[in-house]
Design goal:
Layout: E1 2-6, E2 19-23, H1 29-35, E3 38-39, E4 41-43, E5 53-64, H2 69-76, E6 82-86, E7 94-96, E8 102-105, E9 111-122, H3 125-139, E10 160-162
Antiparallel strand pairs: 1-2, 1-3, 4-5, 5-9, 6-9, 6-10, 7-8
């Protein structure tokens, strides 16, 4: 599976503009998402910008307290090549900022990313957005995931589950 990783590792969104392409075995995705910010999208010259969209080798859904983690595991159990990793605000009483510091108070809930490996990459931005919109509506995940420049913060303390 191919992912993009931030050259700035686990830093702020502002610092996560340049990404390098990494090929990783699917069953090792969680090792990568512990160490750096990442994206399922490949961009021209590694520059994170929707106009630079080249391909997506996986799909990522972001759940911020909208579905219990155990319910997600049950929903995705029958789908091959799914990895669920908890995000940095998972079960925290505070929203965790870009630098890993506690921010505003929140009710602890399940925060996680669902990474679905694709057998073939999607190479058309409109197709990618359409597929993502369908999945977002189907599962109730964060609608901003359909952005062709989307990236996700890694979490060194994440929990991980594979289908």
């Amino acid at each position: 599976m191919v992912l993009k990783v931030s050259s700035a590792l686990l830093t702020s969104a502002k610092s996560s503009r340049r990404f390098s392409t990494i090929e990783v075995q699917f069953d090792k995705v969680d090792e990568l998402t512990k160490q750096c910010n990442y994206s399922n999208i490949i961009w021209t010259d590694g520059t994170r910008k929707e106009d630079n969209f080249l391909a997506a080798h996986s799909l990522v859904l972001d759940f911020d307290g909208t579905m219990p983690l155990e319910a997600a595991k049950a929903k995705f159990a029958q789908i091959e090549n799914v990895c669920i990793v908890t995000s940095k605000s998972h079960q925290s009483p505070f929203k965790i900022d870009d630098y890993g510091r506690p921010g505003k108070a929140i009710t602890p809930a399940d925060y996680f990313h669902v990474i679905i490996a694709l057998p073939e990459p999607i190479t058309n931005l409109a197709t990618y957005k359409s597929v993502m919109k369908y999945l977002i509506n189907l599962y109730g995940s964060d609608p901003s995931c359909k952005d062709g420049a989307r990236f996700y913060f890694g979490n060194p303390r994440q929990e991980c589950w594979y289908s």
